[in-house]
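Chapter review: from sequence to fold.
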Amino acid sequence: MQKTVSIKDIIAKLKATFQDEDQTKHLLNNVKKFCLVIVKAAILIGVGYVILSPVIGMIVNSISSNKDAYNPMVFVLPENPTLEKYALVLERLDYFPTIARDLLYTITLTGLQLLICSMVGYGFARFDFPGKKILFACVVVMIVIPAHTIMLPLYMTFKSFDPFGLVTMLKGTPGLMGTVVPMYLMTLLGCGVRSGIYIYIFNQFFRGLPKEIEEAALVDGAGVWYTYFRIMLMNAMPSVITVTVFSIVWQFNDTFYAKLFLISEEVVISKRISGLQALIANQDKILDVTIQELYLHAGVILIILPVIIIYCVLQKYFIEGVERSGIVG
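The token string follows.
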């Protein structure tokens, strides 16, 4: 006897079928998402390892004992960790007084660079004047052309720099070699370390701010300087944070200009690291090159430590500033 199928049974079977298909699609979507997460994690871990492995290696070497350096069984973690390398390097680098002078030198240059580059960027973004396009092209050229291509003119300029005999009167000899004055002069004139990039960042950000802000300030009686310092620069804090971090890192790590202008190692601590091995060999009679490299790694970690601390403090604001500053615009 043929079994009759009611309409309710058909509807129930159709619902079950569609529910199974929805569950299958949902399961496939979950699998795809899980695979995507795995791929992203693998890429991030791989890239992170490539970037951080040299730093991790230096940290491990800096806390390794002399026995660990020649122990083939030691891998990644030393068997006899010690901080004696740091104790000796702190003394040989005269670390705390030198790092204090270096940070003062770096921070003052950064503050001057922020002021000058923000003013130049604001001028390019808001004012029209003869030769604007040519001057902005010069800013782009500052970004593109490496500093090494103009090192000889820079050296010759500051080697014999003596306007109206003032340098000879104050210093006794012409030229500014061996002082930090060339760096301050270059920064004051908007051509310091990476100044072209900072001008471009500020220009892009100020161009993105609505002109109505300045018009409202003008109606309220605010002048150009008041509008710039109290309104526009306050609104440009993301760019200020971005440029601050970049400037501190590049100024602190700069050895090109420091060597070009013969700036003293008492001011720029990064210059001392190149002679650390020879200093340890001469004063401490440690002639084994492998052991010397352990001390060198400890010195490198001590030098990059202030920059890491600064970045950790400003990381949140730095990321926000990069997103809003128009750095990729």
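Two observations follow directly from the output. Residues 85-324 form a domain with the MetI-like fold fold (CATH 1.10.3720.10). The chain has two domains: 7-62, 85-324.
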